[in-house]
Design goal:
single chain; about 270 residues; mainly beta; 3 helices; about 55% strand
Length: about 270
């Protein structure tokens, strides 16, 4: 019998003291590579902005087997005159999907920052150390803790790809603490239902819509909306990114090394 949503949420938040932040990967395997065309909204006009790529390989982190996942965005010279976009996200997770390390190097406009999150599990509980390199080159370090399992933007998405959406209803949310280089932020993933999305490879896919949202008091800010294939791969077909200086979209161009049969294609 497939896991119910309540079982998945319980496994995600892992609130019990001493619980490991593990999860079962059913969506991807080592060697997966996804490529995208990137578009940027400039004065109400969408222009081709460059490319993006997402990859996952099995690697090692501090002597242990791990998955190494990365997401990179690269703007082209045409768009550089309007807005410089150079983001690189990297995360290591254990083969049991525990977050181990996260790094985000972001150049948006003239601003460049580096965020790092270091996870450890010395006594069966999660410990988190944060690092932010500011635009002026100064460094800030901080140790944080939370009763729930903490994630970063990339590790939570890699985990969410293995969610079983059976029985999900529109508006369903999963809450968790999100780490960047500065602090923990209350965040959530919200399910927005199903829709068909045409990718830049000329194919159309039935997709689940998942929003990554950060909270500030009673206010919510959507950071990224993922349209993932409605099959066991949950491949991101489209990403809507809400940036500091505008918005961008990424549409799937190609995929190779996927784990499961692609069943979400709409003929």
């Amino acid at each position: 019998m497939r896991k119910t949503l309540l079982t998945i949420i319980a496994a995600l938040v892992a609130m019990a003291a001493g619980a490991q932040c593990t999860f079962r990967n059913t969506a991807f395997k080592s060697g997966e590579f996804l490529s995208y065309n990137l578009y940027y909204n400039w004065q109400f006009v969408w222009v081709k902005a460059g490319t993006a790529a997402m990859s996952t390989v099995q690697s090692q982190y501090r002597g242990h087997q791990a998955y190494r996942s990365s997401l990179t965005t690269r703007g082209n010279k045409r768009v550089d005159d309007m807005f410089v976009l150079r983001d690189t996200l990297l995360c290591y997770t254990s083969t049991k999907m525990e977050p181990l390390y996260f790094r985000k190097g972001a150049r948006e406009g003239s601003r460049y920052t580096v965020d790092e999150v270091f996870y450890s599990y010395p006594d069966g509980r999660q410990h988190v150390r944060l690092h932010r390199q500011k635009n002026d080159g100064t460094h800030i370090w901080k140790n944080v803790s939370d009763d729930q399992c903490v994630f970063d933007m990339l590790s939570i998405f890699m985990r969410a790809r293995s969610f079983d959406p059976t029985g999900w209803k529109k508006g369903q949310t999963v809450n968790f603490p999100m780490a960047d280089g500065r602090d923990l932020t209350p965040a959530l993933i919200r399910y927005r239902g199903k829709t068909n999305v045409k990718a830049d490879n000329g194919k159309k896919y039935r997709c689940l819509q998942l929003s990554y949202i950060e909270r500030d008091g009673n206010k919510e800010k959507e950071i990224v909306r993922f349209y993932v294939s409605d099959d066991d791969n949950h491949v991101p077909v489209r990403l809507d990114m809400f940036l500091r200086f505008g918005s961008a979209k990424a549409f799937l161009v190609g995929m190779k090394g996927v784990r499961n049969e692609i069943k979400a294609e709409v003929k």
